[in-house]
Input
Amino acid sequence: MNENLFTSFITPTMVGIPIVPLIIMFPSILFPSPSRLVDNRLVSIQQWLVRLTSKQMLSIHSHKGQTWALMLMSLILFIGSTNLLGLLPHSFTPTTQLSMNLGMAIPLWAGTVATGFRYKTKASLAHFLPQGTPFPLIPMLVIIETISLFIQPVALAVRLTANITAGHLLIHLIGGATLTLTSISTITAFITFTVLVLLTILEFAVALIQAYVFTLLVSLYLHDNT
Amino acid sequence: MASVVPVKEKKLMDVKLGELPSWILMRDFTPKGTAGAFQRGYYRYHNKYVNVKRGGVAMVLAAYMLFNYCPCYKELKHQRLCKYH
Output
């Protein structure tokens, strides 16, 4: 039972070859590029969604921050589609792997910090000290702000990993419980099944929300630094 | 076994087996040509399986699900319904 629970998170291999790159590249073929004035249904829906999201997300940024539009939009599309595809049975979700989330979070965070230091050195250094702190507290507060700055990428990655992994684990556990309960008492199995349905709805929401939160925080760090 | 139409202009399905090596060597291996090949292949896949009136992405996702069943089979073999595990 213990070994079975985590086997859905191991690297999938087929005849000894890890197929993880294929799985990571798979969502890209579900987003065809618009080529005509009026495309088919799928492309039109995706275009509308991308326009809606990009307007909402990029409205707070200055001109410099809006050069990051492509990066932020592809980020939210990638994380959202990967999380949603992970809800299919038997599929492997790359975002459950901490390595991949760290690989996404650290470069993006470092990019925002480097942009801030390069173009507005004084203002980004000033972020280390909030306004109106009493004089004796300043050294301690600078240390605390530095720690909180360096924890940002780790928090981004671990948040995404933990949320998606926890959701998948809960679905496995409750699904297994429902199956074993059917032979013991049908009513309890039915209650557990209702919990499973609600949990699946939550997982759909979490998949999208996590994508949104990740992208929003990156854009927030960007806003601080441009 | 030369055919009437020159090998160069045939599509892959029309090329006979004996002519296959010369057909492969004839292909355009420049970066632009390879990119064109990928683009053509992608649009063939898209127009055949996604750009249809009924279904489309659902069929692709069902195929993805079945494809993902293969690596899991080894672990799932033990979960078959039987009297003694």
About this structure: Chain A has eight helices and two strands. The beta strands of chain A are 13-14, 17-18.
